User: Fold this.
Amino acid sequence: NAGVTQTPKFQVLKTGQSMTLQCAQDMNHEYMSWYRQDPGMGLRLIHYSVGAGITDQGEVPNGYNVSRSTTEDFPLRLLSAAPSQTSVYFCASSYSTSGDKETQYFGPGTRLLVL
Amino acid sequence: GDSVTQMEGPVTLSEEAFLTINCTYTATGYPSLFWYVQYPGEGLQLLLKATKADDKGSNKGFEATYRKETTSFHLEKGSVQVSDSAVYFCALSDQDTGFQKLVFGTGTRLLVSP
Assistant:
């Protein structure tokens, strides 16, 4: 299994540009989520999904959109990038019917720089 | 709201030294507690967890005990190795059902020298 994969690994955007961060998992997990990691602030939850077609907001959702059309994929969209969105973004997945709900599996991250 | 407080780093140790990274939490319910580790250039991975008071989580020589009376979950290892150099995050989750929203501490960087 590849686990949780994210693309791209690194991206530079100009203010106002849009882009989609891709996330996929092959563990048949029901739950998927997006976090951002900023210096001195730990990880903060942006959006999460408990299944295909179901999404909800986390702690810092403004400026981001998500959708979940399949169990495997959970893309994160930046509609109009701002310098404040410069961060490292992590996708995570958890919970299959044969496993525990609590352990989250993280992807390797996407480093985003907004100029 | 819920919160997690970790000691600031970096923590710099020589190989084979004893490690303690302090973590305290604030939560309204009875949360599950976690330690995640992030090696350079990688995502986070679960190191250990404890789901109720007095539980001890352990993995790879690391241990942490869920102390409800002091609201703490300190991470310890008796003899660190250079390969333990990483950032360590304490986290909690207090959902009984559904998606487990994790609340993270700010992370503590550990540097182990030969």
